[in-house]
Amino acid sequence: MPHSGYDISVLNRVLYLLAVRNPGDFYAGSVSQTFQDKFDLRRHYEAALFFPFINLKGEFEVVVFMAGKEFSLEQFMNRYEDDRIHLVRFAGDLLFKPNHFESLPVLKR
Predict the structure, then answer these.
(1) Strand (E) positions, 36-76?
(2) For 5-29, how does the pLDDT look when each residue is reduced to its tens digit (9 = 90+)?
(3) Residues spanned by the domain of 47
(4) Total number of domains in the chain
């Protein structure tokens, strides 16, 4: 099915390529599975953030956050091995600058 994302089985390779091509960027992912056994209909039921990078030793690493918890990429891939994932890229920066973000109240009282 076109535009349904990547098989979870290739997620490590996709994130490696993205880490090399777009250092500092991070990705929101939406996990989906077929809905009611209809091949052309998918249900998105889980979301996660992926931070792929090459560490100072030249090794590939990925930090995954989902539902307020940190996971390894291996844990994530094992949990959703039969599903697909759609990724959206967010431009990052190679340095974390907490003052770069403006904090605004959600509700005004």
Answers:
(1) 38-54, 60-66, 69-72
(2) 788 899 999 999 999 999 988 999 9
(3) 6-91
(4) 1
